[in-house]
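Reply to dn_fold:

You asked what the input looked like. This is it:
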Amino acid sequence: MLVYCKMFERRQWHFETPLRQFRSIKLEMAMKIEQRNISIESLREMAPDDVGLVLSNKKQGKAIFDLSWQIPRIRFDDVRSQPLTRTVVRIKFTLVPDFDWSDGAHGTSQGFLLWIEDANSEFIYHSEEYILLRKEYLNARKNRPREVEWVVPIFEPIPAQYYLRCLSLSWFGCDEEATVSFRHLLLPEIYKPHTKLLDLIPLPVSSLSNPHFEDLYKFSHFNPLQTQVFHCAYHSDENMLVGSPTGSGKTICAEFAALRIFSMQPKKKVVYIAPLKALTRECLSNWVLSFGTKLGKIVVELTGDHTPDLRLLKRADVIITTPEKWDGITRFWKSKSRAYVLEVGLVILDEIHLLGQQRGAILEVIVSRMRYISEMLQSNCRFVGLSTALANAVDVSEWLGISRHGLFNFSPSVRPVPVTVHISGFANDYYCPRMATMNKPAYVAIQTHSKDKPVLIFVSSRRQTRLTAFDLIFYAALDNNPKKFSRLSEDEILFLRSTIADSNLRHTRVAPRDRT
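and this is what came back:
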């Protein structure tokens, strides 16, 4: 159907030479190319003079050669495949413009259709439209091509290859193809099932057998997940991996291991490593109150924004840091000024499922170096990894030196509070129109599923945060209740407005006189 549309638009047959799409080419030259069955690839491989000789017209050789290089083509480069699971594979490749841009022929942008299909050309596993702008073309010519990453299914027996294809939306002669070979692809092992959540009687906080430790928790019993992990975390020194959904209480499981260090090896240090500064600050505020105020431990933050002095680090019992900072500290662990690294008895790695992301290499280096230091000093350094439910938990546990007794990889459905998922799809491919069309359904979903409870909406930018907030206020105003989402009195709202400097944020605090 696309070929038929192009024929109507270009007013030529699809089997004619693609050079007929240029108005500047003479009909005589186009007919000679067709009679001699010369392809665009052949014209590109020749020198301009050779093109003139083949067409028996030396004057037109350079012009025909230049036009052949103006046919817009996209070349696939650096095609790689990586298995994620036994049924999913990641395809990475680079899109390189392989033509000479002409403003008269190409305008400001060119559209292409990209897809990946199976070896028999029966199934398309992924497709998308790609718009090449002139600015992006210039960047690509400066060795900054666009990198694309797709995740597609794979089936056993493993096929020999998939095909990547690129097709121009408006030009003939632009078809490109690349092969994604799976000849040497090794799929991961069949993963073991998730850890089953046992039907155990919840342990009381008194199981800690220490009044100071018991005073840290305001609740009376640990939840089922913490109950199952308790013995390994609090009564053993085994390395441990806890994979469970967010909000299921993994941090308290790590605290069990920290409390064991405090009671059994009080001179050892605890290092908490989180990939995000927001996590380190949240953990710092919690542990300064619990470990610091109630247990008298010294808790320090070691990040790019805050670096304590050497004396405080030597005295610290708990160090909260980021992977980059701890990597830089441990590189010179033999130095006298870094002697406190040798006193680490517990390393807590939070959000370890980010191991496969860009910063995962730093985590690998940290663990390898800390295990090497432990071997050199003949001392035990315990590792506790925290993550969401993992597909390849066995691989991660082997890397951390965790036995089967210390592996707890619970299913994503194991949650203290049940989760109900409602999915709404939006067909618009462009970001701004799609976000605009999602605001009204988001408001309706709030009214339907969480009318009187807090709501968290994720968007991808600060600008979109403002736009979404203003739209929600607008829809609330249409319901004759612009203060629908406010739970404060009018005096409290007026006071808050006087303390807010940002005009956009002040507008969201709707006061009675500002309803318009």
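Residues 511-516 have pLDDT under 50 and may be disordered.
Hope that clears it up.
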